[in-house]
Amino acid sequence: MILIGTKSTHLTSVKASNRYCAACQKYETLILNVFRIQIHLFGIPIFPIAKTGNAFCQDCKQVLQEEAMSELILHDYLLIKNNTKGPTWQLSVGLLFLGVAIALSLINTSTNQTELEYLASPIQGDVYEYLIDDAQYSTMKIIAVSADSFYIALNKHNINDISRIDWIDKDENYQKNTIAFERQKINDMYNSGKILEIKRKAQKVSDTL
């Protein structure tokens, strides 16, 4: 299913009075249709971006787009188009989605700022969730910190579903031996996106080596 895209929604259809179809020369056969093009998310219309339409002959089935309409038909069509409004609930849905998007953006910004603070001032017990490869994730825990290095215990397990990574983030799953990482290496891993999240479970004073 397409997450986001554009979609046309029918707004109204009005019979054109005293107008004839140039193709079949029949009077009172033209139907003026108005549609609204809108952005949709998961199939739900969110924001209108334009209105369009056509003139359809019920007799010969010819369809005229705006640019092909005669002056009189175009005049009638534009009056209908300009006076036709869409359902107000769609605007409410759009504003709701906009509000949610802004809230999520603010939360994400706040989270990123917090993680940068954790990265700059690491403490014992900080947990780094990281990407091993395209489909495997694991965690590593800071055991101690020195001026230029992190001393980290790696998790003995990995998982292929990042949403369930808490399942393996248990004290007994971390190796007893520690590995030294230069601060710059950790920073590079975070900046490249390999470190996905930094969690601080408890406020502890860092060990100094």
- Give the integer mean of the pLDDT values: 82
Q: Can you summarize the main beta sheet?
A: 5 strands, antiparallel
Quaternary organisation:
single chain
Instruction: Kindly report how far apart the N and C termini lie.
Output: 54 Å
- Low-pLDDT stretches: 204-209
Q: Could you give the count of β-strands?
A: 9
- Alpha carbon gyration radius: 31 Å
Give the fraction of residues assigned to helices.
Answer: 25-40%
User: What is the count of helical runs?
Assistant: 3
Order of helices and strands: EEEEHHEEEEHE
Structural class: alpha+beta
Strand content: 25-35%
The coarse silhouette is rod-shaped
Strands side by side in the biggest sheet: 8-7-6-5-9
Defining traits:
single chain, 209 residues, alpha+beta, five-stranded antiparallel β-sheet, four-stranded antiparallel β-sheet, 3 helices, 9 strands, 26% helix, disordered C terminus
Structure explained in plain terms:
With 209 residues, the chain is α+β, with helices and mostly antiparallel strands. It is 26% helix and 35% strand. It contains 3 helices and 9 strands; from the N terminus they run ββββααββββαβ. The chain has helices spanning 71-83, 88-120, 183-191; strands spanning 4-15, 30-41, 44-57, 63-65, 127-133, 136-145, 149-154, 179-182, 195-199. The strands form 2 sheets. The chain has a 5-stranded antiparallel beta sheet with strand order 8-7-6-5-9. A hairpin with a 3-residue loop joins strand 6 and strand 7 (149-154). The longest helix has 33 residues, at 88-120. The radius of gyration is 31 Å and the shape is rod-shaped. The two termini are 54 Å apart.
